[in-house]
Design a protein that fits this description.
The protein folds into 3 domains: 162 residues, no CATH class; 85 residues, Alpha Horseshoe (Serine Threonine Protein Phosphatase 5, Tetratricopeptide repeat), CATH 1.25.40.10; 84 residues, Tetratricopeptide repeat domain (Serine Threonine Protein Phosphatase 5, Tetratricopeptide repeat), CATH 1.25.40.10. It contains 11 helices and 12 strands. It has a 6-stranded antiparallel sheet, with no helix packed on it. The protein is elongated. Helix content is 39%, strand content 24%. The N and C termini lie far apart (121 Å). β11 and β12 form a beta hairpin. By secondary structure, it is α+β, with helices and mostly antiparallel strands.
Length: 362
C-alpha cells in the first residue's frame, strides 16, 4: 500500500495558528514598538487631551522617508491621498472639553482626529477631522475636516520617541507641540476662559452650589477680579449677602461697585460695615487700600483698628507700614515702637524691627 505524506510549510502553519488565535479574545499584552501615550493640559477650567501612539526614530530617516513630505497616497484602506496621522497605529485623537480656537479657527468641543503635514522648507499644516475612530490615515476623508491651518515647524534637539507636550501657557492659551526626531510641530490653542467660567458658574449656581453663600460669593469674586460681567457679579454677591452678611462679601460688593463707577456709594457701604468688622477683617481691608494706592484711606482704617483693638501689637505694626508707605517717618517709628513695647508675636516683632532698621531707628 502506497503511503501519502503531506508537507506543511512553516509559513502556512504560522498563519494557521495566528488565524486560530485571533479568532478568540486575547489577553492584554504590551504594544510594541509604539506604546500608547496620553497627555492632558488644563487651560482656565477647560481641558485638552491627546491620545496617541509613540513611535521611536530607531536610526531611521524620518522626514521625507518614513513620513513623506506633503500628502501621501495610502497603499491600503481607501487608497486616498492623506496627511500624516501624527503618531502611529490608530488615529491620534485630540479632545476639547469646551469650544476652542485652534490656530485662529473656531472648533466646537469634542473629539477629533489630529493630522499634520510637513514640507522640506519647514512649513506644514495641522488638520482636525471629525473622523477620529479610523486606523491612522488609511481612511482619511477631507470632507470630514473641521479645520486646516498652516504652521511653521521648529528645529529642536534630538527626540527619540514621539512626544506631545504643552508649552507657553497663559491664562487663555497654550501651545500644543509634537516633538520628534529634530522637528517640532506647534499648534496654538485658545479658550474664552472668562466666558467659560461665567457660563459654568451660572449653571452650577442652579444646582447644589446655589444653596450656600460661598458659591455666589466665589462667582462674584471671579467677576470682580477679572473685571468681567460685573452686572452678573453684583447680582451674585447681593444674593450671597442675603444669605450671610459677612464683611468679606460686603467688601466684594464694594469692589464691584468701585469698578462700575459707584465709588462714593461703595466707600460709604464699607465705612458702615467696619462697625461690625473684626480686627483681622479691618487689617486686611487696610492692606487692600494700601495695595490700591489709597494710602490716606488706609491710614484712616488702620488707625480705627488701633483704637478698637489698642492692645494688639499687630494693629500698630500695620499702621506703621501705612505711614512708611506715605513717607511719614515720624509716625511710622512711633507705631513700630508701640508694637515692640507690647511683647509682640515673633512674626510681628520681626516685621517691626525690619522697618525700624530701614528707617534708621535701630
Amino acid at each position: 500500500m502506497r503511503k501519502i505524506f503531506f508537507i506543511i510549510k512553516p509559513v502556512l502553519l504560522v498563519f494557521s495558528v495566528f488565524a486560530f488565535i485571533t479568532g478568540f479574545a486575547q489577553v492584554t499584552t504590551p504594544r510594541v514598538p509604539s506604546p500608547a501615550g496620553m497627555v492632558q493640559q488644563t487651560i482656565g477650567i477647560s481641558t485638552v487631551t491627546i491620545k496617541y501612539s509613540r513611535p521611536s526614530v530607531r536610526g531611521r530617516e524620518v522626514w521625507g522617508k518614513l513620513v513623506p513630505y506633503g500628502w501621501n497616497v495610502q497603499a491600503f484602506g481607501a487608497g486616498n491621498s492623506a496627511p500624516w496621522r501624527a503618531g502611529a497605529n490608530e488615529n491620534t485623537v485630540i479632545s476639547f472639553s469646551d469650544d476652542a480656537m485652534i490656530e485662529g479657527h473656531k472648533v466646537p468641543a469634542g473629539d477629533y482626529g489630529l493630522f499634520f503635514t510637513i514640507n522640506p522648507d519647514n512649513t506644514g499644516e495641522v488638520i482636525l477631522s471629525k473622523d477620529y475612530k479610523s486606523w491612522g490615515s488609511f481612511f482619511y476623508d477631507s470632507t470630514n475636516d473641521v479645520m486646516r491651518a498652516k504652521i511653521n515647524l521648529r528645529d529642536i534637539p534630538q527626540t527619540e520617541m514621539l512626544t506631545y507636550n504643552f508649552i507657553n501657557d497663559t491664562k487663555n492659551s497654550a501651545e500644543l507641540v509634537l516633538n520628534w526626531e529634530k522637528k517640532q510641530f506647534p499648534v496654538k490653542i485658545e479658550f474664552d476662559v472668562d466666558k467659560i467660567v461665567i457660563d459654568n458658574a451660572s449653571a452650577q449656581l442652579k444646582g447644589a452650589t446655589g444653596f450656600n453663600a460661598v458659591g455666589f460669593a466665589s462667582a462674584a469674586m471671579y467677576a470682580q477680579q477679572n473685571n468681567v460681567d460685573l452686572d452678573k457679579g453684583l447680582k451674585w454677591i447681593n444674593q450671597a449677602i442675603v444669605m450671610d452678611k459677612k464683611f468679606a462679601y460686603i467688601n466684594i460688593k464694594s469692589n464691584i461697585m468701585q469698578q462700575m463707577g459707584k465709588g462714593n456709594e461703595a466707600t460709604s457701604m464699607m465705612d458702615s460695615a467696619l462697625n461690625t468688622a473684626t480686627e483681622v477683617e479691618i487689617n486686611q481691608y487696610g492692606y487692600q487700600l494700601l495695595n490700591a494706592g489709597q494710602t490716606d484711606k488706609a491710614i484712616e482704617v488702620l488707625t480705627l483698628n488701633t483704637k478698637r483693638f489698642p492692645k494688639s501689637a499687630n494693629t500698630w505694626d500695620s499702621l506703621g507700614e501705612a505711614y512708611t508707605t506715605k513717607g511719614d517717618k515720624k509716625n511710622a517709628i512711633a507705631c513700630f515702637k508701640k508694637s515692640l513695647s507690647m511683647n509682640p508675636p515673633a512674626n510681628v516683632r520681626a516685621n517691626s524691627e525690619k522697618f525700624m532698621h530701614q528707617l534708621g531707628a535701630m
